[in-house]
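Quick sanity check, Methyltransferase type 11 domain-containing protein:
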Amino acid sequence: MQGRYQDGSAGDANYGVIGSGYTNYRQPDPHIAEFIRAALGDAKTVLNVGAGAGSYEPVDRQVTAVEPSASMRAQRPAHLPVAIDGTAEHLPFADRSFDAAMATFTVHQWSDLDRGLAEMRRVTRGPVLVLSCDPHLLERSWLHTYAPEMIAVEGRRYPEMDRIATALGGNVEIKAVPIPLNCVDGFGEAYYGRPERMLDPGARLANSAWSFVDASVGERFVAELGRDLTDGSWDRRYGALRTQPFFEGSLRLIIARP
């Protein structure tokens, strides 16, 4: 089990380092948010675990946020509740305290996935939502061509969909979440039709997988992608993506109802 970093980050990524400027690139996308809103149903009280800077937290419900990283807690906007310093594996709440619970883009960083999911189930009366990526579908992205090492890291970090479903139990539904062309939540696949954005170091830094590969991988990625954008190679191979309204990649919403 990993220890906590200086800023409190409790998973495998140090957000005291990579979290700076995170919200410049990672904003909640309305299309993705609608999937979460619908799955929450009529829940009035919602727990957000690994809440980060508050992406996808509903503003029309009573939300309790839990986030171990001080850097991420500091980037939460003023209209959202102050996040509690804590981890998924040790939720400081009584059984069945919340109508619903959610975890977005976070389970792959937990030090003990099964315990964290069991804790979410314990404190929740209704649905538990997990927004994550299917590790078997990551190679659908053109990023695999240019940075296979980074995609391999992601594949090792993201837990299997079946593992999450089994740990949560109950009636489980797994929904594909298509990514819109102008997605404002800048995870890797969000730039499927805007490759130039991935030349920005900040855009890569906002995706934790890049912090797990050698710097030379990023340097090669920028050099090769920049070359292929300049000479038209990228567009000859992937240019149709520039006008494709949605991309069904690896993004999935797991909804576990008791």
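Posting the structure with no commentary besides this: The two ends are 29 Å apart (CA to CA).
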